[in-house]
Design a protein that fits this description.
The complex is a heterodimer of chains A (about 250) and B (about 325).
Chain A lengths: L2 H13 L3 H19 L5 H7 L2 H11 L14 H6 L6 H33 L10 H23 L2 H20 L3 E2 L5 H18 L5 H5 L7 H23 L3 E3 L2
Helix pairs in contact in A: 1-6, 2-6, 4-6, 4-7, 4-8, 6-7, 6-11, 7-8, 7-11
Chain B lengths: L1 E2 L2 H4 L4 H23 L25 E8 L3 H8 L5 H10 E8 L1 H4 L4 H9 L7 E2 L1 E5 L5 E6 L4 H25 L3 H15 L6 H14 L3 H11 L10 H7 L5 H8 L3 H18 L2 H12 L8 H13 L11
Parallel strand pairs in B: 2-3
Antiparallel strand pairs in B: 2-5, 5-6
């Protein structure tokens, strides 16, 4: 692990907290106060803040290396300078995955804290907080999405952004449409589409639900192995891409 | 152009390569093994494949219909997560009669007529969405429904909420059937289980009061109103109606608090009309009850049915004999 990369990422995020970020937090808190006032239990809200689209969004927003990272002409300048130092690209990827994990967990915890605070302010009858196994799942899933985000960030900016868009679409599709609708199609097409969607989800998702796993009536190691191998695959691809990229330090 | 020396920075740790390869091998091996030898569950939901609508000697447990289809990926997700969760399995086995309805219209182009009838009854025919859970009373009244492969925590919450709501739905049905004694009993049980601050408690107190009055238990009704008025949430509708019945506010103030909401006005006219009917002021009662029954959005509302029933009784309809129940 590289301490400089770790601290730099955290400090950069702290120094670039904008008014928009603060406004989002304040508006979320007002919304949560409204929900607490109406007396609804916040189980679904907690599920939302720990869901894959949110974790991907939090992780991506946290992991930005330079303020101009979105400018494709200046993309790579940061890496070119960084790798003139005695730092291996694999070390950078692993450190970055760890720091994005911590950052994503911090942002998620902030929003979960707001849920608890809104219940306290509104004197809710039962204060509902995230339980132990769900918090373990959240931490582990933050690492999973940390690996995805690092992979996206090692790609050239334009390609990375397109990949983020595709991944986010898949996440949102999987989170929002947790049901199947029968279409007037041939049975084989219906089966093929459903299997494809399930395969995509199992293959792509670096997500694990410890709460479901621990309380399951049929324990299996499959989700743990799937999760761990997905994370390692993402890290390996990220290292491979970064190793293949060439960065010019200066011209003339 | 000056380039960095890639040789210095492109080293990949051997442990990372080794662990990735090992995990991938285990992943494929485990997948193939579990495909042949799926893990056996320690406990399972005791599904019935079909249940008659009104079985003889049926238990009073709620019926949990689980509409499913073999092709649906979301169904597999629900079964491997929520329906394999120990707490969910126990909740279902202890409190419900679980019935699994498998839709085979994709594979066989048509369902069994009994299954089709059930799907039609619960509105599944127009848009077939799976998985769908519908909880009903033993005699068919719907309590709650849940669509989609929710995770165990949300399914558990859905089941717990359903159990809490059960008495309210039973009471509402008895209220609509003009079975006032039963309605008062169920509303009372609901309030005992959920307390006065719950979402439906204000309506429960009001309807229990009216049910007791219509059942001729005037003293019990007045005692209920005295005891519970302080406890219910004064910011929730229909608290002003309770306040009016307690004579804490007058009719003008009650109309003001209902605002422009047509739904609230429909409800308040039904209760105010019933109150006038109970004290024998039939002219005023008819005026309010007629207002309540005009321009109603949903004729299934208990308040609409209450107003219609009292109007029928006032006009001497022999079928409206609710007070005798």
């Amino acid at each position: 692990m590289n301490r400089a990369v770790f601290i730099f990422t955290f400090l950069l995020k702290l120094s670039t907290v904008s008014k928009l970020d603060i406004a989002i937090v304040v508006l979320t808190f007002i919304g949560l106060l409204g929900a607490a006032y109406s007396g609804k239990e916040p189980t679904a809200i907690i599920e939302g803040f720990t869901s894959p689209p949110f974790l991907l969004f939090f992780g991506y927003s946290f992991s930005q290396d330079v303020a101009l990272n979105s400018n494709s002409l200046r993309d790579g300048e940061y890496f070119a300078l960084l790798f003139t130092r005695p730092l291996t690209r694999s070390s950078y990827v692993l450190t970055k995955a760890l720091v994005v994990t911590c950052g994503t967990l911090a942002i998620s915890s902030l929003f979960l804290g707001l849920v608890g605070l809104s219940e306290l302010v509104m004197h809710a009858k039962n204060i509902v907080l995230i339980d132990g196994w769900r918090f373990v799942s959240l931490t582990v899933n933050c690492f999973g999405f940390g690996c995805v985000v690092v992979l996206l960030r090692t790609l050239p900016a334009k390609i990375g952004f397109r990949c983020l868009f595709i991944f986010l679409s898949i996440c949102m599709l999987n989170s929002s449409t947790d049901f199947s609708v029968k279409m007037d199609q041939d049975a084989s097409i219906v089966y093929a589409w459903e299997y494809f969607a399930t395969f995509l989800q199992n293959f792509l998702y670096p997500v694990i639900d410890f709460d479901a796993l621990v309380h399951s009536t049929r324990f299996t190691w499959q989700p743990i192995i799937d999760y761990a191998s997905n994370c390692l695959i993402y890290l390996m691809i990220a290292i491979y891409i970064l190793n293949k990229r060439e960065f010019s330090y200066a011209e003339n | 152009m000056l380039k960095t020396d890639p040789g210095l920075t492109t080293e990949i740790p051997i442990w990372l390569i080794a662990s990735t390869v090992i995990l991938l091998v285990i992943r494929v091996g485990l997948f193939l093994y579990e495909h042949e030898h799926p893990p056996m569950p320690s406990e399972e939901i005791h599904w019935q494949e079909f249940v008659d609508e009104k079985p003889p000697n049926a238990s009073q447990k709620l019926i949990l219909y689980y509409f499913t289809a073999r092709w649906s990926g979301a169904v597999k997700k629900l079964e491997s997560n929520a329906f394999s969760n120990k707490q969910v399995v126990k909740l279902i086995n202890d409190n419900f009669r679980p019935v699994r309805i498998v839709d085979v219209s994709v594979e066989e182009h048509a369902n069994d007529p009994q299954i089709q009838k059930l799907e039609d009854k619960y509105g599944l025919s127009a848009l077939k969405v799976f998985p769908k859970i519908i909880v009903t009373l033993p005699d068919g009244g719907e309590v709650q429904r849940c669509i989609g492969a929710k995770n165990p925590a949300l399914i558990k919450k859905f089941l717990e909420d359903t159990i809490k709501t059960e008495d309210y739905v039973r009471a509402k049905k008895a209220f609509k059937d003009e079975n006032w004694k039963k309605a008062a009993e169920f509303y009372n049980v609901f309030l005992e289980k959920n307390g006065l601050k719950a979402e439906r408690s204000t309506y429960s107190v009001l309807r229990e009061y009216i049910s007791l009055k219509l059942a001729g238990q005037n003293q019990a009704a007045e005692e209920l109103l005295k005891a519970d008025l302080e406890g219910v949430d004064s910011l929730r509708w229909p608290y002003p109606v309770l306040a009016y019945l307690c004579q804490a506010i007058d009719e003008k103030e009650l109309l003001k608090r209902a605002g422009d909401s047509q739904d609230k006005r429909t409800e308040l006219h039904a209760y105010v009309g019933t109150a006038y009917y109970l004290v024998g002021n039939l002219t005023k009662a008819e005026e309010h009850l007629k207002q309540s029954t005009s321009d109603v959005h949903f004729k299934e509302w208990p308040e609409f049915q209450l107003a219609s029933s009292i109007l029928k009784r006032m006009h001497g309809d022999p079928e409206a004999s609710g007070a005798a129940k």
